[in-house]
Specification:
Elements lengths: L3 H39 L4 H19 L1 H18 L2 H7 L4 H42 L8 E8 L2 E9 L4 E11 L2 E14 L4 E19 L4 E18 L11 H6 L3 H14 L4 H29 L6 H28 L5 H24 L1
Antiparallel strand pairs: 1-2, 2-3, 3-4, 4-5, 5-6
């Protein structure tokens, strides 16, 4: 059962959090509108799409992105006010321990963390599909890859090469598909171009040349034992339709690809990419682990916020906020550095993503012990 103290702190915690994040989101929206207004007018974007496709999906994305930071700010704001009104002195004087005071804070942090986890893994990826699609359509004038000489691992030991790719027409030129076995090229297909057929989910190839190494055993009386030989089989065709483990969705923006996959789809996608031997596994694993690690920072920042703002210090609330912002910036910096290590292969993605939480947990524990004294 929540007691009066728990309800009082929890109400102020959640209320301050919602107010601060709503205020900041309003500022973000104003700046975003001022930046994109010319594009909206020039493209004659319907008001309905601006509101429901863009901003309705803009709010949860950025709100959740900054939720640990605003949790920290909210804790510092109302806890500092309680400290300067000597409310903490009265609570502690009544025999309530500092550990007991943390209870409503941790309840509030749990509510925010659970909400953030659900948003990160299931809701925001789906809303990102709509938001990114809107931006590509009206703001980015459509997206077309600038990659050239593209190599894609489409199966174990099988590589697809394309000179270039057009996202608008879903077509590519100078195609080559090579399969390697026992350090030898066993199959090779070349085509002048290929275009996606959305009806049957296959690629239509033009001017196709195929070469295959066919192995077969022969008995050699002279050698006295069987010997394996091979010959090349060549085929030419004006048109050919093939189905491979590659589709237009594999050529969308790399950032978009990892932002629009909910948890189970992202997990299955990672398994699929591992089977292909993809070189970008770390990027996808970092994204999956960050979706869990970042919300848990809410607990850590809540404890730090309470520990540093529950006492009166010179400089008042302003100094508390300044200190909080510095710690938040350091946390974000650590997160970027550690994920860079992971994507560059210098550390395991899981360990790299959780390192900032581990380091700041130690800091939170130290500040908590100091605040108890």
């Amino acid at each position: 059962m929540l007691k009066i103290l728990d309800k009082y702190i929890l109400k102020r915690f959640i209320g301050t959090f919602l107010f601060s994040i709503a205020l900041m989101l309003c500022i973000f929206i104003v700046f975003d509108i001022s930046e994109k207004l010319q594009d909206f007018v020039a493209e004659k974007v319907p008001i309905k799409e601006i509101i429901f496709d863009h901003y309705l999906n803009f709010i949860p994305y950025y709100g959740n992105l900054f939720s640990p930071l605003f949790t920290f700010i909210a804790v510092i704001l109302f806890t500092s006010k309680m400290a300067y009104k000597t409310e903490f002195v009265a609570i502690l004087s009544s025999g309530t321990s500092f550990k007991r005071i943390l209870r409503p804070y941790m309840i509030g942090a749990t509510l925010i963390t659970v909400m953030s986890l659900v948003l990160n893994h299931f809701i925001i990826p789906k809303s990102n599909r709509i938001r990114i699609g809107f931006e590509d359509k009206y703001i980015n004038n459509g997206y077309n890859t600038e990659e050239r000489n593209i190599h894609k691992q489409i199966a174990p030991a099988t590589t697809l090469y394309m000179a270039d790719y057009d996202n608008f027409s879903n077509s590519a030129t100078q195609i080559s598909i090579e399969k390697i076995a026992h350090n030898k090229q066993t199959n090779m297909l070349k085509a002048e171009s290929m275009k996606w057929d959305s009806i049957d989910g296959k690629w239509n190839l033009i001017n196709v040349f195929e070469r295959e190494l066919v192995y077969f055993p022969i008995d050699s009386a002279k050698l006295g034992h069987p010997k394996h030989v091979f010959k090349e089989v060549h085929k030419f065709s004006n048109k050919k339709k093939i189905k491979i483990d590659f589709s237009p969705k594999d050529m969308i923006r790399f950032q978009s690809k990892i932002e629009v996959l909910p948890y189970f789809e992202l997990r299955d996608f990672i398994i699929k990419e591992k089977l292909k031997g993809s070189s970008r596994i770390e990027f996808f694993e970092v994204e999956m682990y960050k979706r869990t690690a970042f919300p848990f920072a809410t607990y850590i920042l809540t404890i730090i916020g309470v520990s540093i703002s529950s006492r009166k210090i010179r400089g008042g609330v302003g100094l508390h906020i300044a200190l909080g912002l510095v710690l938040s910036c350091v946390y974000i910096l650590f997160m970027h550095i550690s994920t860079t290590f992971a994507t560059s292969g210098l550390a395991q993605p899981f360990i790299a993503v959780w390192i900032p939480n581990i380091i700041f947990s130690v800091i939170a524990f130290y500040l908590y012990k100091k605040a108890q004294q």
